[in-house]
Structure to design on (221 residues):
């Protein structure tokens, strides 16, 4: 089953959220009507923005509106799972808009596949990543005191159709994470591929690798 890849480039969060919801609604409507539709991966980057999931705590945002303006960032309350996270340039965001029934997946299995695709992508660059119990996403040194997150994951689904997805820190300005409790954690760090490798990482190459890994996992599910 083919999956269409759309790259929206650097796009304001509000515009991407609007376009994402349009794609999501079109797939749901077509599915319910028995019409043809397209499963897709949307790739993009955002200007500095914080997003707070439906189960998130407002207190995990440590800045007020004026302080947010000073650092050139904004805050959105959105309908994905998870708590607060940051998106910014140098971070690869992937929004898979998929009918999970096409792949015979439960939502839990799908989230596992998102994590696995990132773990395999990191491995291709020599970065050993894994999972942390009861904490969705992808982590380094997950069982140690220096545990740090390299990818946040938050998903919304209706009628087994997904939206939102994952945010992999490739060359992200990690200072922005100091203004929040990332994903609600106060005792864990955040990292990026560049920080771990100590060198620049080609974003386009990471995009290709991530999409390859994700497509292969979905097609073999």
């Amino acid at each position: 089953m083919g999956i269409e890849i759309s790259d929206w480039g650097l796009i304001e969060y509000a515009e991407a959220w609007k376009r994402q919801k349009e794609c999501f609604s079109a797939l749901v409507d077509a599915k319910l009507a028995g019409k043809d539709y397209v499963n897709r991966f949307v790739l993009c980057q955002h200007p500095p923005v914080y997003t707070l999931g439906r189960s998130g705590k407002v207190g995990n945002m440590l800045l007020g509106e004026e302080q947010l303006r000073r650092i050139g960032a904004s805050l959105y309350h959105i309908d994905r799972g998870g708590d607060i996270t940051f998106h910014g340039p140098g971070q690869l965001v992937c929004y898979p808009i998929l009918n999970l029934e096409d792949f015979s997946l439960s939502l839990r299995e799908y989230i596992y596949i998102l994590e696995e695709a990132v773990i395999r992508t990191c491995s291709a660059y020599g970065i050993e990543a894994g999972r942390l119990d009861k904490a969705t996403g992808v982590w380094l040194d997950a069982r140690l005191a220096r545990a740090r997150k390299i990818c946040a994951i938050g998903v919304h689904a209706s009628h087994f159709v997904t939206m939102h997805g994952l945010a992999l820190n490739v060359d992200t300005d990690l200072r922005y994470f100091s203004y929040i409790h990332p994903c609600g954690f106060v005792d864990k760090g955040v990292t990026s591929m560049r920080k771990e490798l100590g060198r620049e990482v080609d974003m386009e190459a990471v995009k290709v690798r991530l999409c390859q890994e994700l497509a292969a996992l979905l097609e073999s599910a």
